[in-house]
Amino acid sequence: MTSDRYREAGVDLTAAETTVERIGKAVRSTHDERVISEHGSFGGLFRLDTPEATETLVASSDGVGTKTKVATALGRYRGLGEDLVNHCLNDILTQGAEPLFFLDYLASSRLDPQVVEEVVAGIAAACRASGMPLLGGETAELPGVYRAGELDIVGTVVGRRAYPYLSQVRPARPGDRLLALASGGLQTNGFSLARTVLEGRYQQPFSGTTVGAALLAPHRSFLTAVRPLLTAGIPVGLAHVTGGGIPGNLPRALPPTVGARVHLGSWEVPEIFAEIERQGAVPPADMRAVFNLGVGFIVVCPAERIGEARKRCPEPLSEIGEVVAAPGVRFV
Amino acid sequence: MTSDRYREAGVDLTAAETTVERIGKAVRSTHDERVISEHGSFGGLFRLDTPEATETLVASSDGVGTKTKVATALGRYRGLGEDLVNHCLNDILTQGAEPLFFLDYLASSRLDPQVVEEVVAGIAAACRASGMPLLGGETAELPGVYRAGELDIVGTVVGRRAYPYLSQVRPARPGDRLLALASGGLQTNGFSLARTVLEGRYQQPFSGTTVGAALLAPHRSFLTAVRPLLTAGIPVGLAHVTGGGIPGNLPRALPPTVGARVHLGSWEVPEIFAEIERQGAVPPADMRAVFNLGVGFIVVCPAERIGEARKRCPEPLSEIGEVVAAPGVRFV
């Protein structure tokens, strides 16, 4: 998990290797038999043993990156709250978890009650939409830590593993198909690059809206779409496409011995990505390594169950590729 | 809980009242019968019903305020990790909870692997000391959000209510005594004021150490001290003395109909507080409203069980006052 944290944050792993190793060692030094997370998993898994029963709790903390900078530039904060909840929620969904509750943290150099209200309204709306109480949180005013007018928000979701999947069903294997759920935009990743390319153009008309509004398109929750698939025991792997794009996240849903082939052109890429690529002259490989490119979530599905998956899922599933014997993700 | 968030952050409640009300309303709109937190509680309580059993989970997210600024000024980061864990841990301890697991978030304008390593080492050490795995976390590099060289850290603890107390034993009532556990320093609160007064003097010798080192004295965990009291069902209220000092936190451990009288001089006030008061010419009432003044945690104890409490507790308990019929906290 630790090295994933670095990869997502864009730290040069080669240089930092020994530090990263030491951090991983420190984290593992706290673990015992109750920690049952698989390697590289999106959420931490904890076995709660009580005299009566055993539950598997799944938890994840995350932020929304520098999407906050676009929100502050446009003065639109509500979406950040939804982004935060849905990002966390999708992370534990990859572990077959139903959300139990959410906690938030919001900090700024100076707390603007209006801003806090908008962010919390967004968090509350997304929590209600997933049937999860906002159980607690903290608001902090930290002058001298944050730049004037900027804020950071952090969310933590706790859920319970409600469905068997992956190791419990069977691991993904060559021939399994990749079914994609649409992201509709950047979700919460790639904003450092996107802002470099598009800063100062947020108000500009773009595709029926503005560049800024397109960038702020909400991070979707995939709970409603994936739940019926989990109920039917269909997925053999689930990936939330966050920082690192498909190559950085799909392998986390696969055994280390296999890989994936992804068919370019097999799904709809939202226009905002073409705009970033064009305006920034960003090489296609970089685009794929940074952005989700329209694929928000990937369900790894046995080939023979695709029809059933499509019938059960309340939204379209694009077949974008398949699991192959060679590790790594190849775009063809 | 929402108004506590504001109070701790020092927001003017009079001005922001309607916004605060709207935020509270948004938070409550997500609640259902599974949320069983008492008003103003330090941690959120969630009832987890499974076919086999019912567990009460207790969770809290928090940061360490601008203590990070003192740490960055001195280049000493390890303590921040311990501060973070123990602050969260003590919050849920007030609910009679044993910790289950912890998650962390660390963000900065630029991630310095060395700094991350030190912070995580501190988090891991404090997690090990409380028998709680560091289940997951996130590290984010957010240029343009944080000031150069500054960082924020956020922790989330999840525990389970393992002991009956308060409503389950009986509510606190006039005549109950206040037993204090020593903080040994500022813990993680009051740093905005402390820094204003002492900035630039961190290297100066002070009381066998330096001003900076005295400010960075770790936030203690009270788990080991309080656990044997909870096991014996002694406490009828527990308060973690954080932002807002004793007047801001002790009432959260009491029914709204009663209050407390605190005897000044009945416990040892660490020298760093006298130094802040003197150097900043801070009025005593302000000192009491901002700092813990050496009282890290308060156990509200039936008078007849004080002897037993002292015998069971592995560290000294100072009797600093009693519960009285009139609401509010009065220092005498």
What do you see in this structure?
2 copies of one chain form a homodimer. By secondary structure, chain A is α+β, with helices and mostly antiparallel strands. Chain A contains 12 helices and 13 strands. In chain A, the strands form 3 sheets. A 6-stranded mixed sheet of chain A has the order 9-11-6-12-10-13. Chain A has a 5-stranded mixed sheet with strand order 1-2-5-3-4, with helices on one face. A two-stranded antiparallel ribbon of chain A has the order 7-8. In chain A, helix 1 runs antiparallel to helix 2 (13-28) and helix 4 packs parallel to helix 5 (113-129). The longest helix of chain A is centred in the middle third of the chain and has 17 residues, at 113-129. The first copy, chain A, is globular, with a radius of gyration of 20 Å. The relative contact order of chain A is 0.15. The model of chain A has no long low-confidence stretch (mean pLDDT 91). At the A-B interface, helix 1, helix 2, strand 1, strand 2 and strand 3 of A face helix 1, helix 2, strand 1, strand 2 and strand 3 of B.
Question: Can you give keywords for this protein?
Answer:
homodimer; 332 residues; alpha+beta; 6-stranded mixed beta sheet; 5-stranded mixed beta sheet
How is this structure best summarized?
Two copies of one chain form a homodimer. Chain A is an alpha+beta fold.
Low-confidence segments of chain A, given as residue ranges, are none
The total of helices of chain A stands at 12
Assembly context of the chains? homodimer
Secondary-structure-based class of chain A equals alpha+beta
Question: What is the beta-strand fraction of chain A?
Answer: 25-35%
Distance between the termini of chain A: 29 Å
Biggest interface pair, counts: A-B, 83 and 83 residues
